[in-house]
Amino acid sequence: MTFLHWIAANAANLAATLLLLGVLIVVHEWGHFVAFRRFRVPVEVFAIGFGPPLWRRPLASGTELRLCPIPVGGYVKPDEAAARAAAPHAKILIALAGPAMNAVAGALFLVALALAQGEVHAAPEVGKVLAGSAAAAAGIEPGDRIVAVAGAPVETFEGLARAVHAHPGEAIEVVVERHGARLTLTLTPDPESGRIGVTHSGATWSRRLPPVQAVAYGLHEAWELTARTVAGFVQLVTRKADASSVGGPIMIFQMATQAARFGAAALVHFMAVISIALFVFNLLPVPPLDGGHVLFGAVEAIRGKALARAVHAHPGEAIEVVVERHGARLTLTLTPDPKSGRIGVTHSGATWSRRLGPAQAVAYGLREAWELTARTVAGFVQLVTRKADASSV
Prior knowledge:
Distance between the termini: 61 Å
Shape: elongated
Mean pLDDT: 82
Structural class: alpha+beta
Radius of gyration: 28 Å
Low-confidence stretches: 242-251, 388-393
Helix content: 40-55%
């Protein structure tokens, strides 16, 4: 089957997958849009989809809302001059807002699942037994449910994995249920990986939870999923994981198709997985990802903070400033804004540097990290309370 034939055969599922991904990307862009608005950076266009607009409507804020024919995402187009003039902490928070919305969406998906069906776990049931594996040598068969490892009961497939990985190269007893009977088998997990060579059957079991516990369980699942995603990216970057195992668009499509076959709950869980993956991926400090914009905003914040502190200390007070212009020094009098303490200038990008001893360099870096964190938190508070401003000093 050629690639074009494959697309034709799977057109409906492929379109549905792209639509789901498009929804998550629009959620991401909505986060940026809200942050731009909160920091008073005008947004010229908020588009849902790509391509020439099928429908457009101007909003009261001056933003043009567009609906485009290719529903695989969207984009936000801010006023470029205003975006460049935004304060460093504003740039950081605007960049973080998109990934944050993906994180929130992923958590909400998992909380909704927990409220709807309770605590769900993968049952320790065998799907496939790999040829030549420890499980095959021990006589484990597809459909077996492993209920104990090395004398300890096992309730989930994750628990099974942890139990066998704890005994690499050791002969251990496992108890399996097969056709209503229990059998005790002996196997030896791989000395290096601790694996026994079985895959999961897809079977699950669930337990209903009270609402408060369900919310806590959903949030815990979101945290665990985020941690596993970060660990996966770290392994990929450090070359401890095979890049081919990460997959690509085809693998995402296959995952979505399989999830759809298992029902709405599996599809919602797939949406949560992709949401969290978008959150983590976009925080990588690489242009043009959001993490790259965060990095540039942090550098700009470190460069321009001394002048900002000096003028912010005199809100509403007339102060003298000395400026250099064409080799001459001029003394000017100005009054910073009474509320924000700002004078309405942005940084040019010019820098100067001074070498430091090792101990001083470490202390300086830690101090800069602390101050940047404090400014970012303060900016986030301003964002939430709508007291944020786009000017830089």
